[in-house]
Amino acid sequence: MHDADITLTSPLPGATGAGPAILALTVLWHPDPSRIGAQYLEPDARGVVELSRFLPLFAQAGEDGLGLGHGGVSRLPVRIAREAGGGLSLAPPESRMAVEVNGVEIDRPVVLAPAQLEQGVVLGLGRAILLCIHWTDRLPRNNKVPGLLGVSSGAIKVRELIYAVASTDMPVLLLGETGTGKEVAARAIHALGRRAAAPLVAVNMAVMNEGLAAAELFGATRGAYTGAQSARAGLFAEADGATLFLDEIGNTPANVQPMLLRVLESGQYRPLGGDTDRRSSARVIAATDQDLNGQDFNQALLRRLERFVISLPPLRARREDIGVLLLHYLERAREDGSQAPPLPFAFASACANYDWPGNVRQLAHVLGRALLEWQAGQEPVFETLVKVRRATPAMPAASVPAKRRALGEFDEEEILAAMHNNGWRIQGAAGELGISRPSMYKLIEAHPAIRRPEDIAADELAENLEKSGGDVERCAALLRTPLEALRRHLRGLGLLG
C-alpha cells in the first residue's frame, strides 16, 4: 500500500506522549460553507495563537490556507496561550466583537481546563463563526470513505483502518455506541475490498428468532423443524464469496455462538438437520455497542472476531466534526428538494455545544425535524428537538417533570442569555426558559436592556445594519432587540428588501 492518502497512520511528531500535544482550531461554522472543516494546527507547542480576521491561516486538507476573513471578526486578536498543567488561557480583544466560549459570552480572560479541552471547546466569534479548540495527533488528510465524514483525529484514524483492512478477507469487529456509523463502516469495508462486486448480506442478530437463528444463518433441510416444508440455504450460503454483516453480534443466541466460531475457524458449517458439512468463504464483519468481555458471550468467538477491531468514537469525542456533518445533511436535504434555509448561527452553536447521546444518527434526525419546521413557517426550538431536560441526582433525566416558574423568578441576565442563545428569536428563548410566547413578551417588555425596534432611531438602525453586513440576526444582537420585530420594522422603513 503506497498511496500516501491511505497509509495506516499519520501521527504528528510529539503528539503521542513523547512531547506536548498539538493544539488545533477547526472551523465548525462559517457564513462561507466552503470554509467549514478548515483547520489551523499550532506549529510551536510553546507559542501563543493570536486569532483575528486575517490570521492564522485555516486550510482544508491539501489546500492553501486563508484567514477567517469575515467582517464580524475583529482585526484585534483573541489571544490563546498554554497554561501550566495542560490548560489554555483565552483573552478576548478590546473590541465590540462578541466572543463566546461554549455558548456563553465572555468579556474577560478565561482559563480552559484540560478536561474541557479533551471534550473540545466551542469558540464563537462575532455571532457568525464557530471554532472548535481541541488537541490532535494527526495531520489533516483527504482519505475519503463514503459516508464516514469528519476532519477529527478519530475520523481520520477510522478511515485509515478501513483502508488497511478492506483489501484483506479477515473478520472485522466494529465497536461503537448506537448511531456512530457501524453499518456505514461495514459497507465501506465491503465496497473498498476485493468482494465489492458481490453482495453485502446484512442481518440484525437482535431481531433474529432465537429458536430459528441456526437455520437462518446456516440453513436447514426439509423437516428439520416444525414448519420446515422445504430446504433453506441460510445466510452463510447466500454470502459465499461475498460479505456477511452480523449487526448486534452481542445478541447472538448462546447455542449459535459455537457454530459461528466453527465457521470462522474452518469455513465449515452444517445446516440444521443435515448430515454433511458445507463450506462458505463469506467474509464476516460484526458490530456491537456492548462490552462482550463482560457478558455471557463465547470468549473464543470474541477472540476470533477480534483479529481486527475498529472502534468508532462517539460524536462528543470528535466535536470538531459537527460542522462538517451539519453541512453534509443540509446539502443532502437540498439535493432531495427541501428548501433548506441558511442555518442560523444560534442553532449551529446549540448543535456544536450539545453532547449528542444518539451520535451522528441523532444529529441527522434533529436537523431533519428542524428543516421541516422551518419549511412549515415555524421557528424550531433546539431544546425541544433534542428533548433536553434538567436532572436531579435522585431522578434520571427522562423522569424529571418540568417545573413551572413565576415570571418574577427570572433574572435579567437569564432572560438576556436566552434571547442571545436563540438568535434573539422570541419563540426559541421562550422554549429555553420553559414558558409560553405571551409570557416571553411580558419579560421582554419589562426588561430594561431589551429595546423595541420602534424606539430605536432610524439612523442607528441603518448604522448597525450596515455594521452587520446586512445580517439581521447579528443586527438584532447588536441592538438587543427581538429579531422578528426588527425585521418587520426594517422592511417598513425600507431599509430591508
Automatic annotation (TrEMBL):
<keyword id="KW-0805">Transcription regulation</keyword>
<dbReference type="InterPro" id="IPR025944">
    <property type="entry name" value="Sigma_54_int_dom_CS"/>
</dbReference>
<dbReference type="InterPro" id="IPR027417">
    <property type="entry name" value="P-loop_NTPase"/>
</dbReference>
<dbReference type="Pfam" id="PF25601">
    <property type="entry name" value="AAA_lid_14"/>
</dbReference>
<keyword id="KW-0238">DNA-binding</keyword>
<keyword id="KW-0804">Transcription</keyword>
<dbReference type="InterPro" id="IPR058031">
    <property type="entry name" value="AAA_lid_NorR"/>
</dbReference>
<dbReference type="InterPro" id="IPR003593">
    <property type="entry name" value="AAA+_ATPase"/>
</dbReference>
<keyword id="KW-0067">ATP-binding</keyword>
<dbReference type="InterPro" id="IPR002078">
    <property type="entry name" value="Sigma_54_int"/>
</dbReference>
<keyword id="KW-0547">Nucleotide-binding</keyword>
<feature type="domain" description="Sigma-54 factor interaction">
    <location>
        <begin position="148"/>
        <end position="372"/>
    </location>
</feature>
<dbReference type="InterPro" id="IPR002197">
    <property type="entry name" value="HTH_Fis"/>
</dbReference>
<dbReference type="Pfam" id="PF02954">
    <property type="entry name" value="HTH_8"/>
</dbReference>
<protein>
    <submittedName>
        <fullName>Sigma 54-interacting transcriptional regulator</fullName>
    </submittedName>
</protein>
<dbReference type="Pfam" id="PF00158">
    <property type="entry name" value="Sigma54_activat"/>
</dbReference>
